[in-house]
Amino acid sequence: xxxxxxxxxxxxxxxxxxxxxxxxxxxxxxxxxxxxxxxxxxxxxxxxxxxxxxxxxxxxxxxxxxxxxxxxxxxxxxxxxxxxxxxxxxxxxxxxxxxxxxxxxxxxxxxxxxxxxxxxxxxxxxxxxxxxxxxxxxxxxxxxxxxxxxxxxxxxxxxxxxxxxxxxxxxxxxxxxxxxxxxxxxxxxxxxxxxxxxxxxxxxxxxxxxxxxxxxxxxxxxxxxxxxxxxxxxxxxxxxxxxxxxxxxxxxxxxxxxxxxxxxxxxxxxxxxxxxxxxxxxxxxxxxxxxxxxxxxxxxxxxxxxxxxxxxxxxxxxxxxxxxxxxxxxxxxxxxxxxxxxxxxxxxxxxx
Length: 352
Ligand code: ADP
Ligand code: MG
Description:
Strand order of the largest sheet: 1-3-6-4-5
Radius of gyration: 20 Å
Bound molecules: adenosine-5'-diphosphate, magnesium ion
Mean pLDDT: 96
Helix content: 40-55%
Number of domains: 2
Distance between the termini: 20 Å
Shape: globular
CATH architecture of the largest domain: 2-Layer Sandwich
CATH class of the largest domain: Alpha Beta
Number of strands: 12
Number of helices: 11
């Protein structure tokens, strides 16, 4: 059911506005965004539609086509673990005296590293801002910061700003290299002959499960021992000389090497060098598997099938411990590649 129809069904009238926001796949640059580094996200076709109207003051009525029971919340409530927390947190960007009716329909699988949470928070902040005439909705960086604050401060997930910037700025198929310290970004045009294909591992996870926060704490402790600046400010040589535990060294090596792969990947795109881009994807996956320990055996298997089916490169994308795999293939080889992949891994779901 569309967001518009769900709104009509839930509230008996048409919404005042409908906002569409894409999901994103990160091509290279994993766990660099909260370490002051670079990322290379691309917006994807699967998206979320948010139908919204002003409602009775101080309250939010929230329905989602993907969650069975609608949620009635007060705007001064705290997060309580319900699926509607992200919507509520985003609505709380504006005065608690406003009231809202919201209906959501999303094609982005949640808890899968394709940024359903950022698409929802950014989409709600944009749509609600337009309805109340708030200037925030004119500035993608401010929207992204407000959406990050929903996850960091309201939900309690210590995520970086990549997802929110990507979905606030990009349209489906567009890619950017983003400096997460300055929020400066360059548009990067993907060669028309390339296709980034996303498959789902079947393993869902929530960023607030704790393992994401563990990685963040490990990075912080390594950064402190290296001198206190964000991890991406250091190079691999200074890492070798520093006195770190084996675990801290491996975590820092992933983040620092991953950060170097981002501008290299951008250059590979600009020179349309698919084999080089594929090698960088493979290196990124190995680093997430061996140094950052965030892949799973199912994900490793999918990556290996993608490669043996003929992809230039393949890697897990997103925060890890499940979620999705992205692979690079040429458009003219896509059908043959998908047939080989599906023969070898028939249960693995194609996302886009
Ligand atoms: P992701 O990698 O998809 O961003 P997160 O764990 O960060 O995963 O966010 C998932 C959360 O976002 C869900 O638990 C839910 O609260 C919210 N969410 C995602 N999709 C929907 C949806 N279709 N309707 C309502 N809330 C959603
Ligand atoms: Mg998320």
